[in-house]
Recover the amino acids of this structure.
């Protein structure tokens, strides 16, 4: 309902954009709490989904780290100087999301978001809320809940897409 | 204070008085003649009334008010103490308890109170309609008496041109909140001057320990009319009489206290039999604050291990001495904080007398409950969670364990069964034992049932030892109860109890003797926050093993390890020991060249032993357990994590789910 209303009035939304490989992605800023450098060693946790790199110490709290490359089935890469951890909240639990480029805030008009129902850049449409053209590039807006759910892959009913 | 803080103080008080109410009711049921119990019940109801009315919780105030009416008639003997009356009082307690819980979550309004209120009123009106009569309630005379020092003070004031008034305030007889009203009147009067004193003393006014009137000596420069109108500003004030007094006319207290209204003995005549909950040299602290304190101490402990490592590298004598001092202080601080979090197991045990009473009535059994070691202390977090499992175990004992009086008599046992609830500390654990002298378990029936339900196979059936048969009670979906009752045996059973206890880092075991009874032993860690561990490496990774489960560490030559039926064994001191290779169990990248001798940590889980093959034994270390967060949820084999001195996270092994 809200989204519909916002779509008609053209409300501006803020997203945190980042890069994985050459693909531009974004997370709703409302679910992001901080952006950190990956300074501490990550401790592997056995018996967790393969896209979870492990846990790390975030100012005294133990936080799991989700590797976006692995989540989307991309070739793994060593973290670089540019790598960042976006701390998001999932069910009130902080979760670190490892991304490639230094994130930046994007201001997007709700009306400019277009739905997708086909894989984009090798990413399953179930993970995507929509796509937006920024300058010459496309930015994929992520459905974070689905991306983080361990028991979900991207596939969903058509009705739920968008 | 914020409203929320008032509320939490109120809730604490509420719990205390409800506890007193409950205990006294139970005692009263056994000894209706004991008037001191009635007094205690009355006081509890009275205090609850005052507190709840002040907070604006009207339902609770109304119930306690109606209870008071009934109770005062019980005190005067106008109404006899019958089992029906005691039952009604128990119902009141239940309702108050429910209201307290409702208030805590803001749903007081949803709780229906009219029915019980009606019953209470019916009982009151069934007796003498006159609510207050007889010599006992005759109005107490107020006589303004001063001590010599007080008179001196008044003298000085009057010499300085200030007038002394004796203000007599009479409240409406039906005023519900006498204490609060008195307080409001005093507050208004105090704006006009200074009190020489009050009759009765302020303390009694606050406690509503007065009839409808009280008197205030006010030193003021205001006119009597002004004082009068200030006194009348509060609702429920019937009349205010202001009387200017001359110093010469003041009565000075005689040496004896008996005639002085100011030291009316009412407050001191509390019967000594029923000890009031200790309120001596203590303060209430929110558990949240203690948690925060604990977190700070935890960080201190972590920082200390960083310091220790650095000082180990730097090798400066003064530094290492200082670090040692810091260590001593940190550990002491930690112990003190942990101690502050400890509460007596009585906090949980105190609900059980009532439970036993209700259960035994319902089931037509006679049960005598004995509580031993209720003063044993446990961490608050553990206490909070252990109540439900214990309740379940106790229900089981009364329902299935203890026989009916006739059955017991026919076996030459006393008609009343004995249920013993015992708690004691044993090194770093607290053991709680629930023991009954009932029929015990029929182990073979248990085994048969497990077989019939397909929980064990034929081979297991054949080779089962008695110990293994007992352990069957912890299998989900197995209950030996012949019929499902309201009390227990409805799906949730000992398996759930076991899960909760193990979730707390505890161990539960059962001993039973057919015809003699059953005892359930629950061993709980003293605290959840900090545990002693052994740090080990597996491959290149670091893990912490809780020291509580470690039996010993040995070095075993890899040649001595052998595999039989898919299980690795090693001969240790001539006995086969099941071996778990942690590299494989924890999916660690295998070491390229394992040394010929392996370090093995022998874990003891109840009667079972298993050896963990590790790469390296590092050191013993106290660690602060932290959760891995709800996102990962429960990871099999991992109990949580801890942050080491260098900031790295080490996982703590959960030996119960790993082995």
């Amino acid at each position: 309902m809200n989204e519909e209303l916002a779509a008609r009035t053209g409300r501006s939304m803020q997203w945190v954009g980042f890069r994985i490989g050459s693909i531009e992605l974004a997370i709703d800023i409302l679910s992001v709490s901080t952006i950190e450098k990956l300074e501490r060693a990550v401790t592997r946790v056995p018996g967790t989904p393969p896209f979870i790199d492990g846990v790390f110490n975030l100012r005294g709290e133990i936080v799991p780290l989700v590797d976006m490359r692995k989540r989307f089935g991309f070739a793994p890469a060593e973290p670089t100087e540019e790598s960042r951890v976006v701390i998001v909240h999932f069910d009130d639990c902080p979760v670190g999301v490892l991304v490639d480029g230094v994130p930046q805030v994007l201001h997007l008009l709700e009306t400019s978001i277009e739905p997708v129902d086909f894989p984009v850049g090798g990413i399953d449409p179930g993970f995507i809320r929509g796509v937006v053209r920024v300058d010459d590039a496309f930015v994929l807006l992520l459905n974070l809940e689905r991306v983080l759910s361990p028991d979900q892959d991207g596939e969903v009913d058509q009705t739920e897409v968008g | 204070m914020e409203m929320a803080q008032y509320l939490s103080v109120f809730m604490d008080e509420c719990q205390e008085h409800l506890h007193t109410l409950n205990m006294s009711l139970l005692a009263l049921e056994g000894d209706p003649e004991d008037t001191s119990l009635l007094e205690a019940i009355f006081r509890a109801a009275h205090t609850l009334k005052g507190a709840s009315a002040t907070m604006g919780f009207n339902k609770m105030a109304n119930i306690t008010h109606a209870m008071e009416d009934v109770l005062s008639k019980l005190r005067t003997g106008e109404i006899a103490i019958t089992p029906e009356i005691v039952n009604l009082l128990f119902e009141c307690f239940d309702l108050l308890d429910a209201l307290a819980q409702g208030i805590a979550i803001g749903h007081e309004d949803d709780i229906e109170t009219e029915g019980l209120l009606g019953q209470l009123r019916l009982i009151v009106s069934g007796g003498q309609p006159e609510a207050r009569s007889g010599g006992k309630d005759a109005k107490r005379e107020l006589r303004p008496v001063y001590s010599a020092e007080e008179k001196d003070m008044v003298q000085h004031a009057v010499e300085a041109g200030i007038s002394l008034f004796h203000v007599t305030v009479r409240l409406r007889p039906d005023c519900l909140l006498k204490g609060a009203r008195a307080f409001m009147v005093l507050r208004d009067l105090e704006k006009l001057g200074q009190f020489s004193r009050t009759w009765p003393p302020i303390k009694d006014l606050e406690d509503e320990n007065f009839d409808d009137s009280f008197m205030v000596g006010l030193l003021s420069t205001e006119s009597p009319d002004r004082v009068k109108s200030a006194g009348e500003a509060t609702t429920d004030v019937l009349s205010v009489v202001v009387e200017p007094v001359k110093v010469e006319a003041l009565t000075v207290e005689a040496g004896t206290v008996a005639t002085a209204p100011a030291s009316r003995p009412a407050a001191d005549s509390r019967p000594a039999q029923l000890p009031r909950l200790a309120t001596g040299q203590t303060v209430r602290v929110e558990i949240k604050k203690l948690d925060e304190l604990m977190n700070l101490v935890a960080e201190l402990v972590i920082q200390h291990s960083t310091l220790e490592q650095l000082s180990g590298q730097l090798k400066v004598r003064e530094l290492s001495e200082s670090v040692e001092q810091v260590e001593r202080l940190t550990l002491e601080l930690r112990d003190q904080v942990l101690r502050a979090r400890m509460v007596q197991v009585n906090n949980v045990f105190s609900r059980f007398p009532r439970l036993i009473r209700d259960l035994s009535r319902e089931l037509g059994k006679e049960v005598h409950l004995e509580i031993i070691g209720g003063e044993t202390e446990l961490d608050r977090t553990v206490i909070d969670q252990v109540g439900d499992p214990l309740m379940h175990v106790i229900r089981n004992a009364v329902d299935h364990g203890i026989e009916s009086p006739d059955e017991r008599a026919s076996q030459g046992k006393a008609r009343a069964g004995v249920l013993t609830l015992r708690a004691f500390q044993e090194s770093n654990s607290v053991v709680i034992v629930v023991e009954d002298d009932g029929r015990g378990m029929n182990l073979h029936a248990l085994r048969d049932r497990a077989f019939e339900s397909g929980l064990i196979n034929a081979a297991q059936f054949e080779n089962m030892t008695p110990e293994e048969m007992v352990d069957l009670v912890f299998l989900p979906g197995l209950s030996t109860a012949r019929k499902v009752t309201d009390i227990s045996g409805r799906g949730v059973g000992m398996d759930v109890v076991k899960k909760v206890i193990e979730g707390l880092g505890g161990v539960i075991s059962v001993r039973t003797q057919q015809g003699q009874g059953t005892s359930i032993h629950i061993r709980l860690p003293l605290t959840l926050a900090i545990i002693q561990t052994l740090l080990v490496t597996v491959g290149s990774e670091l893990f912490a093993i809780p020291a509580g489960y470690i039996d010993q560490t040995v070095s075993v030559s890899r040649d001595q390890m052998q595999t039989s039926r898919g299980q690795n064994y090693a001969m240790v001191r001539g006995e086969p020991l099941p071996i778990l290779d942690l590299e494989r169990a924890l999916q660690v990248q295998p070491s390229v060249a394992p040394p010929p001798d392996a370090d093995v940590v022998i874990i003891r889980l109840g009667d079972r032993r298993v050896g963990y093959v590790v790469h390296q034994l590092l050191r013993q270390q106290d660690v602060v357990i932290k959760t891995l967060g709800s996102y990962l949820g429960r990871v099999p084999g991992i109990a949580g994590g801890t942050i080491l001195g260098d900031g790295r996270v080490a996982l703590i092994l959960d030996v119960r789910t790993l082995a």
